[in-house]
Specification:
There is one protein chain. The protein is mainly α. It is built from 36 helices and nine strands. Strands 3-2-1-4-5 form a five-stranded antiparallel sheet. The chain has a two-stranded antiparallel sheet with strand order 6-9. A hairpin with a 4-residue loop joins strand 1 and strand 2. Helix 1 packs antiparallel against helix 2, helix 23 runs antiparallel to helix 24 and helix 25 runs antiparallel to helix 26. About 11% of the residues have low confidence. This is HEAT repeat domain-containing protein.
Length: 682
């Protein structure tokens, strides 16, 4: 950049800076604002007519144009003003109108909060219809206070994972006793909207998620502290409002039946407390039947389980805290009218029911060394070994379906290493199952669609996920299911931050599989097509070039521009062949971008097109910029066939418009430099 160009550019930027101050004081319709727009637009057009398009990069304390930093005087202030509005760059093409300049000043004069609440500066610019102005925003993210009440509630119900600092706060509340625990649970319940005025239709989904998160977190604490923490958690549940307990009881019991967090919570309560939660607020009915199923799963005979259910009802009706002790005999569980009182729930401890109430030494060993989780993990390992040895398709199918049913358990218990081993094994088993592979696919799809896929995607999108590599490997193993799921999420137009995360995740799990993305382009909405094209560019897979080349005929300008940006990330051979398809684009912005982007390396088709562009009778501002850029590119490539055309333009005598004079002047400079270089000795 020579000194006259720099001085004129700085003059333009000073006018822009002054114009922004004017628009901050007056509305766009005010006379002062109108005069400012004409002044800024006139100065800007003078620069564009003389030097062509300008691209401005924004840093915190300086502006950069063509690699030249501008930081003196008002340049520093203007840079900071644009920086705090999240601008990364601004490009202006010749032909910009007063309306576009006014819209740009009005947009940038808004305060940062107003811009962010409207979706960001880039989205606002797109909504303003600025064909000669392109704005790019910086990708910024903000994080809420993780240790605030809202931050902890968000971690419990959304990310389902506590940071070390959040664990300290949460477990301090649990150790403070049931009242503090209940206060935490009430905060979670309020996050779900609380209760309705009439007490009906209480939403306890968030509360259940929080209880499950806390239950898992307790398992990571020292063994000697776990019982105290679980007791505090269980007693905190008991202190919730009766209406919340009534809505929570069926769901909590369902989790207990399935071996989830409800089992640990119920196990810390006395018989009457369980009756208060389970039987009291909602009556007998279905809840009692589920409690019977739960007790049956603890190896009680069905009749004995029914008796225990009845005992809990009796405890509630009597209103006492204890019942008479009872003993297990061949005839079943019997109440003992005399003797020391004993908690009813102690009789249904799974260890007592299995090994007998008097074998306390064996019970201590069992409780410390064995657990349902360990037994299930051993069973999964056995099925994995068995699957590797089986050869008959029907046996492979049965074992694979059983393994698929355990996937949710592995995710619940954060056994991501086993999950990433199991998923590829299922895929390999599917190939060996012959005619039965459809049954394996159906079972795997059922498990994934029941919530496992949502959880894997959700956890993978968390920037601080503890097992990000394992999560990615798991999603790679099921990418045939994951890709349609991610595409559906993108189709719903998520916020920009989540959209960026979804695109990055899709690119990571689709490496080497451009067809999974490219096959979805036909029929995709314009906004979804742009996202899919971006992912194809991130893959840098030569196979994606064919899909992108077909977009040269897409009706949406933004989709075609995104396709060009994606092709520029490809290896040169595939990129050049595909980009040729875009040189016939009717939009001069794309033509100019291709020529200035050095995408014209010696290709006869491209050089022929550029000569046609120079001869074109179109003299709009955009076409003029393309003509000048094409002539410069032909000179760089030393396209001797084009020299007569350039000479003819340079020697034109009578020119009556500014645009034609601009082209003639550029042709004269190009021809002079070209002929001088030809005369220099080699």
């Amino acid at each position: 950049m020579d000194q006259p160009q720099r001085q004129l550019l700085e003059k333009v930027l000073r006018r822009v800076h002054s114009g922004l101050k004017t628009f901050q004081l007056y509305s766009a319709m005010h006379a002062s604002a109108q005069v400012t727009v004409q002044d800024v637009a006139g100065t800007l057009r003078g620069y564009l007519q003389r030097y062509g398009a300008v691209a401005l990069q924004v840093n915190k304390d300086r502006l950069i144009v063509d690699g030249v930093p501008l930081s003196e005087g008002s340049m520093n202030t203007l840079a900071f003003l644009l920086y705090v509005r999240n601008l990364a760059s601004i490009a202006v093409l010749p032909g910009v109108t007063d309306r576009e300049v006014g819209a740009l000043l009005s947009l940038l004069a808004q305060d940062r909060q107003a811009i962010e609440s409207a979706g960001g500066v880039e989205r606002l610019a797109l909504s303003q219809d600025l064909p000669h102005i392109t704005i790019k925003a910086m990708a910024l993210s903000e994080s809420a206070d993780a240790l605030s009440e809202a931050g902890i509630v968000d971690a419990l119900i959304r990310t389902r994972r506590l940071s070390p600092e959040q664990r300290d706060v949460v477990f301090s509340m649990l150790r403070d006793g049931p009242a503090a625990t209940a206060a935490l649970l009430v905060s979670v319940q309020k996050a779900a909207g609380g209760t309705s005025p009439d007490g009906n239709q209480i939403d306890v989904e968030h509360l259940l998620i929080a209880l499950e998160t806390l239950d898992r977190a307790v398992l990571d604490e020292p063994v000697e502290d776990q019982e105290t923490l679980l007791q505090s958690l269980a007693q905190g549940v008991l202190q919730l409002d009766a209406g919340v307990r009534a809505a929570l009881a069926p769901e909590l019991l369902s989790q207990a039946v399935e071996g989830g967090s409800g089992r640990a919570i119920l196990g810390e309560l006395t018989g009457q407390e369980i009756a208060l939660i389970v039987l009291g607020p909602v009556g007998q009915g279905d809840v009692a039947a589920r409690l019977t199923k739960f007790l049956t799963s603890l190896r009680l005979q069905e009749g004995e389980a029914a008796e225990v259910t009845a005992f809990l009802g009796t405890a509630l009706s009597a209103g006492g805290t204890k019942l008479g002790s009872f003993a297990a005999s061949q005839g079943g569980l019997q109440l003992q009218p005399a003797g020391p009182e004993k908690d009813v729930w102690a009789a249904v401890d799974p260890s007592l029911l299995t090994f007998g109430p008097r074998d306390e030494a064996a019970l201590a060993v069992l409780r410390n060394e064995a657990s349902e989780r360990a037994v299930t993990l051993d069973a999964i390992k056995g099925e994995m070994n068995l699957l590797g040895l089986q050869e008959r398709p029907e046996e492979i199918m049965e074992t694979a379906k059983a393994l698929a049913g355990h996937l949710t358990f592995l995710a619940d218990n954060q056994e991501m290493d086993m999950l990433t081993i199991t998923l590829p094994m299922l895929r390999e088993a599917r190939e060996r199952a012959d005619v039965h592979r459809g049954a394996i696919d159906a079972e795997l799809a059922r498990v994934l669609n029941a919530g496992l896929l949502d959880r894997l995607v959700h956890d993978a999108l968390q920037t601080h996920a503890d097992a990000s590599d394992d999560l990615l490997q798991a999603l790679v193993a099921v990418r045939d299911h994951a890709v349609p799921h991610l595409i559906r999420m993108l189709e719903r137009k998520p916020a920009d931050a989540q959209r960026i995360q979804l695109r990055d995740l899709m690119a990571k799990i689709c490496a080497g599989q451009a067809g999974l993305i490219g096959s979805r382009l036909p029929g995709a909405s314009p906004h979804l097509a742009r996202d899919l094209v971006f992912v194809l560019g991130e893959l840098r897979d030569p196979a994606a070039a064919g899909y992108l080349a077909r977009l040269a005929a897409h009706p949406e300008y933004l989709v075609r521009r995104e396709a060009i940006d994606a092709l520029r990330k490809m290896p040169s051979d595939q990129r050049r062949g595909a980009l040729v398809e875009f040189f016939r684009d009717p939009d001069p912005r794309i033509q100019y971008s291709l020529i200035e982007g050095a995408e014209v390396a010696h290709d006869e088709r491209i050089m022929t097109w550029m000569q046609d562009a120079v001869r074109s009778p179109d003299w709009t501002p955009g076409a003029i910029a393309v003509k000048v850029a094409a002539m410069k590119a032909l000179a760089r490539m030393r396209a001797d066939d084009a020299l007569p055309l350039l000479r003819r333009i340079a020697r034109t005598r009578w020119v009556f418009s500014q645009g034609r004079r601009t082209v003639r002047q550029a042709a004269r400079q190009i021809v002079d430099e070209w002929e001088r270089s030809r005369q220099r000795p080699a």
